[in-house]
Amino acid sequence: MNICELRVRQFRNLEAVDMIPHGAMNIFYGDNAQGKTNLLESLWLATGGKSFRGTKDSDLVRFGATQADISVAFQAGGRRQCTDITIDTRRKASLNGIPLRAANRLMGVFCAVIFSPDHLSLIKDGPDARRRFADAACCQLRPLYMKVLAEYTRVLTQRNALIKAVKKGEQPPDITLLDAYDERLCQSGLEVRRFRKEYIEELRPFAETIYTGLSSGREALHLGYEMSEGEGNLPEAMKAARATDLRAGFTTVGPHRDDVTVTIGGTSARLFGSQGQQRSAVLALKLAEASLLSKGYGEKPVILLDDVMSELDQSRQEYILNHIEGFQVFVTCCEPTAISRLTGGQVFHMENGRLTPA
Ligand SMILES: Nc1ncnc2c1ncn2[C@@H]1O[C@H](COP(=O)(O)OP(=O)(O)OP(=O)(O)O)[C@@H](O)[C@H]1O
Ligand SMILES: [Mg+2]
Q: Is residue 287 part of a domain?
């Protein structure tokens, strides 16, 4: 996957940007609030996804304008393709001149992986963010997983509703119904875990190798999957937890309480990692995701790295700039000092929404 050309009109503070990127490394530097992240955001929209900053579509249009336009020409599937995205009150997209029913139909056609400072939550926050990461990645690679996860979530919602009603005294505990829920929940729960564990198994060697590279071999990252009930088995754990569940008013064991563990040098990255280590760990996860995607699709996703350099020492910055091999990368940063270590690629300067090759 390679972006050949980008044209942006009236998107955020970008009035008119035309860019022909480098095939490997592209660096956007500039002061704060000049439009660097906005530019990555415009590229990200070609994946068919929503803004990675959670902004609603209509807020992406430049203040005072009525419509934003983004055109991305890219090489994929052995040929040059083009997507045009227009945003007014909502987002519409076309692919190679043909309008799509919904913008998300671009998924799987153009693919990218984004690192944004918000993604530090992947390490810093509770298990929720890590489960979402694993689930989203699993869904992308194995569409069947979407159904498996949906079934689990459906039964879980039903079981929780029953338990809550019992707790509130609205109905007596219907043991037969609870038994039936438990059985179905365990069945789909084991499936959910099977998919997630398989994904983590596949991700692990990539993430660990990348982290070793980032830390110049000084630190080791390890990924694991931790089940809510420890090593126990789910049907037994669920039965044992029933009284607790009825008191709590929700289901306390199962894949919805599992975690993806990330350790550095044997201790939890979340509890003991430094800023730079946590950032490196997220980066390793994201770059590993990109490697797996390229294995799955036979096409390398474009890598978008927003503000990844801050808090990283020189050798880690160097690794990023020079060792993400075979991918087309777009990086933003503020200090041009990092750029002097660039050994190839194209540097662009962003100022007040205007982009110029440096
Ligand atoms: N819809 C919009 N119309 C016009 N301007 C907008 C719109 N949305 C955001 N902006 C402006 O875009 C500016 C630049 O945003 P951006 O996040 O791209 O900066 P940046 O160069 O990444 O800065 P930093 O280095 O601080 O991350 C902001 O000052 C913001 O006010
Ligand atoms: Mg920014």
A: no
Which atom of ligand 1 lies nearest, measured to the CA of 61? 1
Tens place of pLDDT per residue across the chain (358 aa): 999 999 999 999 999 999 999 999 999 999 999 999 999 999 999 999 899 998 999 999 999 999 999 999 999 989 999 999 999 999 999 999 999 999 988 988 998 999 999 999 999 999 999 999 999 888 878 889 999 999 999 999 999 999 999 999 998 889 999 999 999 999 999 999 999 999 999 999 999 999 999 999 999 999 999 999 998 799 999 999 999 999 999 999 999 999 999 999 999 999 999 999 999 999 999 999 999 988 888 899 999 999 998 889 999 998 988 878 889 999 999 987 777 777 788 999 999 999 999 8
Instruction: Output the residue whose Cα is nearest ligand 1's atom 24.
Output: 32
Q: Is residue 274 part of a domain?
A: no
DSSP classification of residue 214? H
Distance from residue 189's CA to the centre of ligand 1 (Å): 43
**What range defines the domain where residue 191 resides?**
123-269
Same domain, 33 and 164: no
Measured by CA distance, the residue closest to atom 13 of ligand 1 is 33
Total number of domains in the chain = 2
CA distances from 127 to 88, 122, 133, 294 (A): 36, 8, 10, 26
Q: Which among 269, 289, 320 is the end of a domain? A: 269
Give the number of the ligand closest to the Cα of residue 28.
1
Q: How far is CA 84 from CA 41, 72, 148, in A?
A: 15, 7, 33
Closest to 249 in 3D by CA, of 350, 140, 170: 170
Ligand 1 contacts (CB < 6 A) are: 12-13, 30, 32-38, 59, 61-63, 307, 334
User: Which residue is associated with the tokens 């029913």?
Assistant: 101
Indicate if 100 and 202 belong to the same structural domain.
Answer: no
Residue type, 281: A
In a domain, 251, yes or no: yes
CA of 246 to the centre of ligand 1 (A): 49
